[in-house]
């Protein structure tokens, strides 16, 4: 039997794209409390089914496909630029193809404006109308409004007119930053990217017998399966060692390992790899918010995904990549060391190298040193920074890592930071090693 929470999510899924919803309307339509409706709407927002806009409300939007993540909806643009919707609210769910800055004469400008675009322009009323007629939405900068005719046309064509107090340059930078952030997110492999979906997953129920496990084992050659109840909620995991030497008629529930570790579809592969190595797990159930089974991920698929991402070119640079890309490898006799120049982006508000940058440099130095000895990657477990002196902008520093201990699954490193021959930082790192 489905819960009220699940019924609300199903109801939202079936709403028309662009339809406006509210806590009160959901509560009334499904005879649930406003608290239950609020929680379900928030989860729908997390899943990308709805978008909440200040002064507009919550609207049903089309869930983005993975390959379309670098595009923004007009609803997202409103939130990015702290905008106010003047007209065309029913079109907020639409996705913009590109944005055009209207800083030229009308005739020249309109050569670049096509349907699905977002025209960023000031208080040029006639241009607003022409852009709408072309099929483009309009973002008005400088806090200006538009004409009543343009608002009426926007409502007729379901194309938003948005006003923001920011100037054109700032708005363009904000939208670019949002697209860039989404590109970085796209590069992060999640469980959702590699999971074996429910329709292809073998699982057992608490009322099955060990005989059913043996049947699956003969058919698939696998020995690990999630165990669910009648509502598909994960209750346990069962493996070969759980059923060894047990009668075939025994219930699975009697021998399974209860309350297993699970992950959700938004968990990163790096986090899953850390969990699997640390706990010695070969198969993890993937669950939704109600702990219902939606698939599984195997250790083999996780490690394969990690290897693939390491070979892929990156479109968006994270802060960590900006820092580590400036590290250069050098030799000092038999010792390996790394050098790096401290740029303004690496400093804090008083102009000295930030704590986070120091940590990033030390971990990366340990990682690169470890790869000289064995293949694989390093997942940080603990860092003890027991000495750090301020390092200024434009300083040239040396990072000297040394291996204290390295085994099959764990490593311990000592990392020292030097500036002009003087020790300015020292830390000890312990990490898991993923082969």
Automatic annotation (TrEMBL):
UniProt entry tagged with the keyword Lipoprotein: no
Keyword vocabulary terms for this entry: CBS domain, DNA-binding, Transcription, Transcription regulation
Matches recorded under InterPro entries: CBS_dom, CBS_dom_sf, Diverse_CBS-Domain, DRTGG, HotDog_dom_sf, Ser_kin/Pase_Hpr-like_N_sf, Thioestr_dom, Tscrpt_reg_HTH_GntR
MF annotations from Gene Ontology: DNA binding; DNA-binding transcription factor activity
Domain CBS: 256-318
Pfam families from the UniProt entry: 4HBT (PF03061), CBS (PF00571), DRTGG (PF07085), GntR (PF00392)
Protein name: CBS domain-containing protein
Organism: Shouchella clausii (Alkalihalobacillus clausii)
